[in-house]
Amino acid sequence: MLKDALKIKVDRRDGKLAMAHFYVAFIALAVGGLAGLLQTLVRSGKFELPAGIGYYQILTVHGVVLGLVLTTFFIMGFQISVVSKTAGTLTNRQRLIGWIGFWVMTTGTVLAAIMILLNEASVLYTFYAPLQAHALYYIGLTLVIVGSWLDGTVIIMKYIEWRKQNPGQASPLITFMALVNTLMWIVATIGVAATVLLQLLPWSLGLVDTVNVAVSRTLFWYFGHPLVYFWLLPAYMAWYVIIPKIIGGKIFSDSLARLSFILFLLFSIPVGIHHQLLEPGIDPAWKFIQVILTFLVVIPSLMTAFSLFATFENYGRSKGAKGLFGWLKKLPWGDARFIVPFIGMLSFIPAGAGGIINASFQMNQVVHNTIWVTGHFHLTAATAVVLTFFGIAYWLIPHLTGRVLTKKMNKLAIIQGVTWTIGMTFMSGAMHAAGLLGAPRRSSYSEYGGSAQAAEWIPYQIAQAVGGSILFIAIILMLYIFVNLAFFAPKGDQEFPIGEPLSNEKPPMVFENWKLWIGITILLILFAYTVPFIDLIQNAPPGSKGYKLW
Ligand code: HAS
Ligand code: CU
Fold it and tell me: How far is the CA of 184 from the centre of ligand 2 (A)?
């Protein structure tokens, strides 16, 4: 039955819902990319923003529009597509909920964007208190989250329906993965919803005068770390399930893939304090416990790396490859659907290593609040994840619009991926290096009164501007390809690749025992966070009034 389902195209109406999400995502790419380019130019010291636009204003645009809007819209569009493909067409009711979710998210995005453009909310994408934004900015972001819950509801409903219709059977792998990501997202977003609704909103409306800064940051990072895995897991879905089919191989192990996703559900959330290792008010013992939990969440990524190598090697050897690395030659290097996400995988090796450095309690002192961290997340989020999203777009957009990726577009797509990689190598490389020399993140250009140390950073800042400019060219190429695939490419049947496992193993049904997994997730969260929160509330210094520093 699953085999038949894999031949069917995604229903046209579901495709429209997914495409609506992709339009917003790619508009976000255009706006956010431009803001990014301007930032690197300002930081090179050779350019000033016109018309009274502030550096922190465009930095906020960049973070919100790319980190929150592009990602959430792309992920929801992708997850709806894979679930519709493998678990079946959405019912009218499910589709309606999806559309309401989409419009709630879009309304929230527009609201937040207007407040940033009016310069009422230059508080960056992390909106740390005591920086205080206009209430409508917080309301806008809340709507984005509420809308994403509605989209998530569609995934959950479809999953439940599939299980009812197929009793005793393991759900389709990629539907299972989309469900895990949705459950993680819902548990995680409760944290940011709590700080916005209970703290930041009443405070920016003037209903209360002060805010407990440490509590609000801790609630933010309770959400902020799983947020980055919410971005990563859809890329992993493509790596585990879609790439094997594209190369003509098989998924190494269905059960291993499910286990790694369950581990992400368990360990993604009780680790947020690794973003606060240098903040006061949290006992070092609890920081250390969350550092250990962070190292546990590295394991499913190592499992993923292992399983990808196994898939590639297996395929290569099945084609007669010899020697230790002979299989590399058998991979389809001319196929953009493969090579662009593959560069993403490759970049995730140094990116992940950088993450492990960040998480190492003492080493965090060297890198925290330096531009090294910005370099880290431009390799993880803006390379590994985003190149995979582009790789997905190259076949999914034409599949949904009934068109095909032509040879010419395929070639341009490879050029796009390579251009991105060159730009990012300059930009992220220079950020890592300057960070180690102490260059701060989240800061506009300054010579710091002619300090000798700041002078050392300037060449790296120029390298960042060079990288940023190359990246902007790659963004223009991506937008051009997107418009082609959405509106102009020749009509045809673009394949929706869904891989199958190497063996006929039956994944253990315990993986679908959500009471168990959500139960353990909640216990781990309570374990990691109860005492820190009690401390932060009981021993809180007087609350802070709001600041508008821009
Ligand atoms: Fe991170 C800060 C730790 C992963 C994103 N991170 C950030 C911020 C962002 C971010 C946005 O502990 C900044 C937030 C802010 O604004 O302040 N991060 C980690 C760790 C991991 C990690 C331990 N981060 C990510 C991912 C992100 C992301 C993924 C986005 C998508 N990060 C931190 C810490 C901080 C931090 C601290 C705070 C720093 C501070 O002080 O502020 C791990 O999950 C990484 C594990 C990954 C691996 C790599 C596995 C490799 C694979 C590829 C295999 C390749 C193949 C192809 C098979 C161990 C799966 C190769 C084929 C060949 C032929 C060679
Ligand atoms: Cu983190």
Answer: 14
Q: Which of the residues 295, 306, 442, 533 is marked catalytic?
A: 442
Tell me how far the alpha carbon of residue 37 lies from the centroid of ligand 1, in angstroms: 23
As beta bridge partners, residue 306 has none
Average pLDDT value for residue range 281-304: 97
Q: pLDDT tens-digit profile of 464-522? A: 999 999 999 999 999 999 999 999 999 999 999 999 999 988 999 999 999 999 999 99
Coil vs helix vs strand at 388? helix
Q: What's the gap in Å between 369 CA and the centre of ligand 2?
A: 14
Q: How far is the CA of 269 from the centre of ligand 2 (A)?
A: 9
Identify the CA nearest to 546 among candidates 4, 115, 166, 128. 128
Q: Is 345 in the pocket of ligand 1 (CB under 6 A)?
A: yes
Q: Does the CB atom of residue 310 touch ligand 1 within 6 A?
A: no
CA gap 184, 378 in Å, rounded: 23
Task: Give the tens place of pLDDT for each residue, 437-473.
Answer: 999 999 998 889 989 999 999 999 999 999 999 999 9
Query: For 187-211, how does the pLDDT look when each residue is reduced to its tens digit (9 = 90+)?
Result: 999 999 999 999 999 999 999 999 9
pLDDT averaged over the chain?
Answer: 96
Spell out the domain ranges in the chain.
Answer: 2-538
Specify whether the CB–CB gap between 394 and 448 falls below 8 A: no
- Pocket lining: 373 vs ligand 1, CB cutoff 6 Å: yes
H helix or E strand, kind and range, residue 164: helix 135-165
Ligand 1, atom 6, residue with closest C-alpha = 377
Q: Tokens in use for 335? A: 């196929």
493-503 in b/e burial notation, b at 16+ Cβ within 10 A?
Answer: ebebbbbbbbe
What are the Cα distances from residue 330, in Å, to 105, 315, 502? 43, 8, 18
170 — pLDDT class (breaks 50, 70, 90)? very high
pTM comes to: 0.97
Supply the pLDDT for residue 32. 96
- The fold of the 2-538 domain, in CATH, is Cytochrome C Oxidase; Chain A (1.20.210)
Q: Can you tell me the mean pLDDT for 153-182?
A: 97
Q: Is 376 a catalytic residue?
A: yes
User: Which one from 229, 390, 426, 445 is the annotated catalytic residue?
Assistant: 229
